Amino acid sequence: MRVVLNNSCLVQPAEPTWNGLMPLTEFDQTGVLAHIPTIYFYRPSGTWLTQKDTIFTTLRTSLSRILVHFYPLAGRLRWLDGAHLMLECNGKGVQLIEAETDADLDILGDFTASPHFHHLIHPINYKAPIEEIPLVIVQLTKFRCGGIALNYSISHAVVDGQSALHFIFEWANLARGDSLGNAPFLDRKLLRAGDPPSAQPCYEHEQFDPPPLLIGQCSCENERKKETTVAMLKVTKIQVEMLKNKANRTRSFNDGDRVFTRYEAIAAHIWRCACRARGHRYEQSTGLAICLDIRNRVQPPLPQNYFGNAIVDVVATGCSGDLVTRPSGYAASRIREAINRVSSEFVYSTLDHLKNLKDFSRFQDIHAMKTNQGPFYGNPNLAVISWMALPLYGLDFGWGKEIFMGPGTHDCDGDSLILPGRDGDGSMVVALCLQADFMEDFKKFFYEDI
Fold this sequence. Notes:
Number of helices: 11
């Protein structure tokens, strides 16, 4: 698929906004700092397609207006000593790109795991000075058939998934002619942004330790080099319930215990199937990284429209042999144990742990997608991220709702996402990247063992 770029501009806020340095929290400055791409596909009606540049003009005008409210996204990052970051609110703007292709949308098939997606995502040069890189890059690609793709790449150093979706849905509201529905809460002082440590951490924070290596290997370099492939695996509502029932079947409930959630049951299933497909030795240590929204876990709770990274990573650990041979409730219990550690005290202890560090560089990943750089959570490990509660669907800029949405790139060994099915019928989709040698066995075990 050949894509030609026709137009690129920086879109600035339509009105003057506050300028100055905005401190970032430690959660903003660690983990993945690169831009996270998400793609929406549409088939606009003829009324939107007959007038040239109508769609691009609508996007540009409404983007300028929404940036008045979400003005931090129009700023730039700045490095400080010790790989710390500051956000400079300066109104420089976000990048909006218009492109076209001579291909039809049909070239993407059912859209799942298409190798053509990378043509629809503007590449970002992370070797450039960070203060020159826009925090948001949007690419509109028009297909010959009249279909369009909208890719949003938004810096994870500034927002988490919930905040990014808040921004793009409010943008769509303005594009349709509606008013702002819910203003962002921009004060990161609620998570002590810019404050010194208040104490020594009161927990051990193993989530920052290097993940397990394959037995007999002294680094992950060999695993990094291996070819990967991506699969999108549909799980029906009935299958979700079967996995939950299976995980809870051997559980002994004490007073106040909760049944395993859909996430815990599905993540446990993914973990066990990956251990089997990878052919681990019984005694192989393995970790499963979990990303938790803390808006309702801290006291007092954060506003739901808190704009930033309100997430904490924890790691469930186990022995591959135990995970595979014991009932699925065992793997789910390891995940539950990791999740239950994240109390309000744990969150603020994590902040203190990071605030007491002089250098963040070993906890940061700001490399371009499809590289073998940055932290590695592949074989023998996994990351299972939940998008199950995020409002992903129904993004309407005036020309109708999307016909498909999904992650833009997803090609690092061990990465997986759980998304709700787009029909709202209780189904789920597991987007998974594994080494190519293991994927067919994984898919076989995934459906056989439900």
